[in-house]
GTP pyrophosphokinase family protein
Amino acid sequence: MSTAPVEDDALNQTITEARELRDEFQRFLHEYEFGMREIETKISILRDEFAHHHSYNPIEHVKSRLKTPDSIVEKVARRGIEPDFDSIREHITDIAGVRVTCSFVADVYRLFDLLTAQDDITVRIVKDYIARPKANGYRSLHAILEVPVFLSSGPIMVPVEVQFRTIAMDFWASLEHKIHYKFQGQVPAHLVDSLTAAADAATELDERMEQLHREAHSTTLTALPKPPIEV
Ligand code: 0O2
């Protein structure tokens, strides 16, 4: 059975529009991917420079992710954001995310300072959940940073959410996330209490490890005939 010419035209028009939307969405996501890569490169340069010139690596690992289209659509609906690209660009700032896990709390702040001091980085929002942990015990330093991306059409500023945390904070957040997901947000009270206690233990561990590190470092320095000179 063949469709009438008018119906064919309507169908072709719908297909063309759907393809255009798909292409525009891909271009939109690419902007965030490029922004994420710029931040990854900056972090990787800092890491290499530390390793080569300071014989110290403050970064344990770096993980990046782009929000999935489903997750973007879900957030647009949940926040009541207009479903157009400009509104999404303006209101959703965590489409590109980079998580930097450091050894110690001092490294978290040092990395944050070094990254945000770079001339081409604009700091949009900082949420310091280390200084002020969330009620459930969540700790991390969050920053929405804008980084320039140079496209063939010209430069654009892309927001990237960077989360800085220690290994202990990361361990806790990852378990908490799994528990939260398993119970779909309705975590039983006894588990909430245990998680809060575990967050306190993680904070204490961070403090003790950093103290130990400082002691070991100062012992090494006094044991050396001459302290190293940094130029
Ligand atoms: P994903 O997949 O990790 O990105 P918003 O995301 O803007 O709606 P909010 O509270 O304004 O929410 O942003 P905030 O406080 O900067 O936190 C956003 C991200 O921090 C979350 O992203 C998590 O990655 C992490 N986070 C914040 N609070 C918690 C917490 O209590 N537990 C854990 N495990 N992680 C947390 P997403 O979008 O939830 O997920």
